[in-house]
Design goal:
Elements: E1 2-4, E2 7-13, E3 19-23, E4 29-33, E5 61-62, E6 84-85, E7 102-109, E8 122-130, E9 136-144, E10 150-156, E11 159-161, E12 168-171, E13 177-180, E14 186-189, E15 201-205, E16 211-216, E17 221-228, E18 232-237, H1 239-245, E19 257-271, E20 276-287
Antiparallel strand pairs: 1-2, 2-3, 3-4, 5-10, 6-7, 7-8, 8-9, 9-20, 10-19, 11-19, 12-16, 13-14, 13-15, 15-18, 16-17, 17-20, 18-19
The structure holds 6-O-phosphono-beta-D-glucopyranose.
Catalytic activity: alpha-D-glucose 6-phosphate = beta-D-glucose 6-phosphate
InterPro entries: Aldose_1/G6P_1-epimerase, G6P_1-epimerase, Gal_mutarotase_sf_dom, GH-type_carb-bd
EC number: 5.1.3.15
């Protein structure tokens, strides 16, 4: 593990030297690199690395809300809290540790103080797995440890690093309905072509397929997002005007990032006391260069 501004980060390495770095601040994945050392996640050059605000980049976890519906803390508060390493994790089901897979288990247990923001007691666990092929899997479990039911939204707010936003295509969301965050979540239907970008986009695609792709022509690579338990996909790029209004975001950095989040937003997830929910995402990257 390493330290940044006094916050511990855990580094995972595959046998072929792909790597991932996870911060105890927010349980946030801060870096994901290929075997060749290429960074696959965007982090703003203006990011504020000091807690409590979440770092602009990587994969902040949004829970128990997405956006600002429930409490005053946009995207929920767990991304702003300190998590701990889970010393007693559930066994790695169906994964053979002899294959060289690296993983870490973190947990956030809600505090009395958190009840001011959300009046429910919960335990949120995150397992991050770096596989031999360099793919990154995040498995989150939310457990209701309260005496009454609660409902929540969840998102892996994933900032992908891309070569040029004008040359990017998102595949798998064609013809689906989406809620437009720029228009108070009004509902629209996407057209038949893959999504391309030429202005600000802030949408929640609903009831999406399990696999979504981001084709990056400039970098000649495709990100594949495979998800379970997370029916929705957020697509966000602030473009030039909004970028200038975000203090911890560089003016032209919108050209080099795209957020595509596996999420559960439209239909909140409800847990009775003692129940647990699991949401999983697997991120992989394929090079489209022919050898
Ligand atoms: C996006 C939201 O996913 O996150 C946007 O849809 C929001 O509306 C953006 O602006 C960034 O949020 P934040 O709180 O990290 O600045």
């Amino acid at each position: 593990s390493e330290d940044e501004n006094g916050v511990s980060q855990v580094v995972l390495r595959s046998p072929r030297r792909a790597s991932a770095r996870i911060s105890l601040h927010g349980g946030q994945v801060r870096s994901w690199k290929t075997e060749k050392g290429e960074q696959l996640l965007f982090t703003s050059s203006k990011a504020n690395l000091k807690p409590p605000a979440a770092v602009r980049g990587g994969i902040p976890i949004c829970f128990p809300q997405f956006g600002e519906q429930v409490s005053a803390e946009q995207h929920g508060f767990v991304r702003n809290r300190m998590w701990v390493i889970d010393r007693n994790p559930a066994p790695l089901h169906s994964i053979d540790s002899s294959t060289g897979i690296a993983s870490i288990d973190l947990v956030y247990i809600s505090t009395d103080d958190d009840l001011r923001f959300w009046p429910h007691r919960f335990e949120l666990r995150l397992r991050v797995i770096l596989s031999v092929d360099g793919s990154l899997t995040l498995i989150s479990r939310v457990r209701n440890v309260d005496c009454k039911p609660f409902s929540f939204a969840f998102a892996y707010h994933t900032y992908f690093s891309i070569g040029d936003i004008s040359e990017v295509r998102v595949e798998g969301l064609e013809t689906l309905d989406y809620l437009d965050n720029m228009l108070h979540r009004e509902r629209f239907t996407e057209q038949e072509d893959a999504i391309t970008f030429e202005s600000e986009v802030d949408r929640v695609y609903v009831s999406t397929p399990d696999t979504v792709g981001i084709v990056d022509h400039e970098e000649k690579r495709t990100f594949v997002i495979k998800k379970e338990g997370l029916p929705d996909v957020v697509v966000w790029n602030p473009w030039d005007k909004k970028s200038k209004a975000i203090p911890d975001f560089g003016n032209n950095e919108y050209e080099f990032m795209l957020c595509v989040d596996a999420a559960a937003i439209e239909n909140p997830i409800t847990l009775k006391p003692g129940e647990e929910w699991t949401g999983r995402v697997e991120l992989s990257v394929t090079s489209s260069l022919k050898h």
